[in-house]
Amino acid sequence: MHRIIKSHLDSFVGSEGLGHLEESEQFEMFANYSTLSPKLIGGVDFESVTTGDGDDGIDGVAIIVNEELILSKEDADLVFSQPRRNNEVELVFVQAKRSESFDLGDFLKFKESVLKFITAEQYESNDFTQLNAFEVYNVVLINVPKIRDGKPSITLRFITTGVYQKPHAIERAKEEFIRQLEALSYFSNIDLEFIGRDELTQLWVASYSGVNAQ
User: Fold this and answer.
1) Distance between CA atoms of residues 43 and 90, nearest Å
2) Which of 16, 95, 97, 172 registers the highest number of CB atoms within 10 A of its CB?
3) Start-to-end Cα distance in the chain
């Protein structure tokens, strides 16, 4: 792992008491925490949005309503029981790899897993975090009349410790993924980015320095 990222990861692990976990799990939580921090008013419950061994290509999934993390169907029902009709809703999906390369196969696996989550009527998964998020997602779909622009937005982050050089094959896969998401007409905005070590460092530093990350 790149030494700068390793140092930041060690700082995160130490502050959160995660030394008992495998490095791969630590990095997934680190990536999820860094991705979500700029989007939330309160703290990030990174353990509740990080998938486990049963995941099928998604390392983090979160549903945010009005800058707050919604972690259960009951919480989602409560939010949408209010009279407000312009709720800001965002789905966030993360894939995090410790490698210093961006692998096309890993990205395609991520893509198919996200599409399965979005389009399934009866969702099947071996991972509790994904199943729980899907229950929240169903509540969101039922309540789209109470969402700003009539649709949620979606953010997707594919994260490694390398430098993204825009390889042709992966850029084509990215464009196809965006076309597929647009064709579904489920989202008011689609934000898909590849995050390398520099961008990840910026997100992490912003999470504790008060800097607004973009």
Assistant:
1) 17
2) 95
3) 25
* Burial class of residue 152 in the structure, from the number of CB atoms within 10 Å of its CB (0-12 exposed, 13-18 middle, 19+ buried): buried
CB–CB of 19/13 below 8 Å?
Answer: yes
The tokens for 30 are 């680190």
Residue 28 has a CB neighbour count (10 Å cut-off) of 26
Q: How far is CA 51 from the centre of its chain?
A: 11
What are residue 8's DSSP bridge partners? none
pLDDT in tens, the chain (214 residues): 889 999 999 999 999 999 999 999 999 999 999 999 999 987 889 999 999 886 688 999 999 999 999 999 999 999 999 999 999 999 999 999 999 999 999 999 999 999 999 999 889 888 999 999 999 999 999 999 999 999 999 999 999 999 999 999 999 999 999 999 999 999 999 999 999 999 999 999 988 876 444 4
H-helix or E-strand spanning residue 183: helix 168-184
Q: What is the rounded CA–CA span in Å between residue 17 and residue 14? A: 5
Is 102:170 a contact under the CB 8 Å cutoff? Answer: yes
Q: Amino acid identity, residue 25?
A: E
- Taking the whole predicted model, whether its pTM rises above 0.90 is answered as yes
Helices 128-142, 73-80: crossing angle, 10 deg rounding: 20
Element (H or E) spanning 69, and its range?
strand 68-69
